């Protein structure tokens, strides 16, 4: 998370907010951003946490969903994962999602069902796919 956020910070966004279930990931991200002028916040929590609503902003310019949906679905079940992701999806106009298995189209269906259009697709040499969506 921290390295990706740092690369994005080079483009001078107003704000970066990262959420990860693993404390070492958020700790590294915070330390990377000690030297950045970009305002940032990194929270350690599960997306299924009852605290999620209290840390999310109302709007985000871009939401990155980097191979996270399948983990949430595995842990909380599809119905709860869908509810969480629909809420997050509805807070933005642009989504970049990395999907490990492009044939598992559930996340893509949620995104497209919220009025997004696929604008770019990149196949990783490691097998996952990065999809960029925009809603106009």
Automatic annotation (TrEMBL):
Domain of life: Bacteria
SUPFAM superfamilies according to UniProt: S-adenosyl-L-methionine-dependent methyltransferases (SSF53335)
This protein's name: Class I SAM-dependent methyltransferase
